[in-house]
């Protein structure tokens, strides 16, 4: 955002006329169309929410309407029959009406962060500042949904990509040895089943172990139950609170609170909070959900490179079709991760594609060398 005090205030200009260039008018009309689309987006999302989150989304919509008035003032009579908003805003509005808010908010976060107002002297400094703050508001709202998705989503993305890359690499490696299409197909099916079961078991054990570690380190309510029977002169409660990070003086004060000598609850953050435990478990996810997601998505991902062989393709035809299908799938999964993380979908998609194809190319070369050596 430009902080120059010499930047003119566009709100002081008269409506568009002879002093405005056609390029400016086209740009303002596009800005206005986008502001209308964004206000409608936030209002659509707000209708699905309640309480504080609803009020926040309505506040964002109100801010976008203020921005609309700025461009309407500059456009004057040119504010009629506006062009379609940018494709990104159209996609956001469509997703808001059909899908959940997590994907939409992730996309909206990126849109707010890419606002051109900080680089455009026709927008006020206040509008540019608004857009920067809006990005942080959307980031905070999206974080709630991302935390709920993180456990199962991590397992699903990891499973799908592992299935795509590992089975594609396996098929390319077997194909490089020069074996027949039937052997390649059977190898791919075996890799699918073995990998999916291994992923599911690994995710189940991983998530269950993480939850057990949380249980083991979570403070309990033992201090409340034991407090009435403790000796005031030799109070182990002080040791409990010192172990939780309190100073000696604070620990002694906390122990007296627990024994009922003091009535205040001065350091509640050192007590067991059931709601905090629930939040931690939401971030970790369910072991069964993680295992099921890993199994299903690994199987789907591993099936894609096998499809040409299932339908009877052989040789280079099967390799080319399999590579194309896997390339599309890798790009799509990378793009989804990019969307949810607020990053560029294209960048994430190309990263996934390069990693997957690189692994397959290496195994194909190794398979070719192995085939020559065996021959």
UniProtKB/TrEMBL annotation:
The keyword Transmembrane applies. Residues 1-24 are annotated as: Disordered. This is VIT1/CCC1 transporter family protein. Keywords: Membrane, Transmembrane, Transmembrane helix. Coiled coil: none annotated. It is found in: Endomembrane system. It is a multi-pass membrane protein. It comes from Nesterenkonia flava. Its main location: membrane. The chain crosses the membrane at residues 168-201, 287-310, 316-341, 353-374. It comes from the Bacteria. SUPFAM superfamilies: Ferritin-like. InterPro entries: Ccc1_fam, Ferritin-like_SF, Ferritin_CCC1_N.
């Amino acid at each position: 955002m430009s902080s120059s005090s010499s930047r003119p205030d566009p709100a002081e200009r008269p409506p568009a006329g002879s002093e405005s260039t056609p390029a400016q008018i086209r740009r303002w009309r596009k800005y206005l169309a986008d502001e209308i689309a964004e206000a409608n987006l936030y209002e659509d999302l707000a209708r699905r929410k309640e309480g504080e989150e609803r009020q926040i989304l309505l506040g964002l919509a109100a801010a976008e309407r203020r921005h609309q008035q700025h461009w309407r003032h500059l456009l004057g009579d040119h504010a009629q029959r506006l062009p379609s908003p940018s494709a990104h805003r159209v996609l956001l509005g469509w997703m808001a009406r059909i899908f959940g808010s997590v994907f939409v908010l992730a996309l909206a976060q990126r849109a707010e962060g890419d606002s051109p107002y900080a680089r455009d002297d026709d927008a006020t400094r206040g509008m540019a500042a608004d857009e920067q703050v809006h990005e942080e508001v959307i980031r905070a709202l999206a974080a709630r949904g991302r935390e709920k998705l993180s456990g199962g989503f991590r397992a699903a993305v990891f499973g799908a990509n592992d299935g795509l890359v590992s089975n594609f690499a396996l098929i390319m490696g077997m194909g490089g040895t020069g074996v027949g299409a039937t052997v390649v197909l059977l190898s791919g099916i075996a890799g699918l089943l073995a990998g999916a079961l291994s992923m599911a078991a690994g995710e189940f054990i991983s998530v269950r172990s993480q939850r057990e570690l949380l249980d083991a380190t979570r403070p309990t309510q033992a201090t409340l139950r034991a407090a009435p029977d403790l000796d005031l002169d030799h109070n182990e409660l002080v040791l409990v609170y010192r172990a939780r990070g309190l100073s000696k003086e604070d620990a002694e004060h906390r122990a007296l609170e627990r024994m009922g000598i003091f009535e205040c609850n001065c350091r509640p953050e050192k007590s067991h909070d059931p709601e905090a435990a629930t939040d931690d478990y939401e971030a970790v996810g369910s072991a069964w959900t993680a295992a099921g997601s890993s199994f299903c998505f690994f199987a789907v991902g591993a099936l894609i490179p096998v499809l040409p062989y299932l339908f009877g393709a052989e040789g280079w035809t099967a390799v080319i079709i399999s590579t194309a299908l896997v390339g599309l799938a890798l790009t799509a999964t990378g793009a989804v991760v990019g969307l949810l993380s607020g990053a560029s979908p294209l960048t994430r998609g190309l990263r996934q594609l390069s990693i997957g194809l690189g692994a397959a190319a290496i195994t194909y070369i190794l398979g070719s060398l192995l085939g020559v050596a065996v021959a």
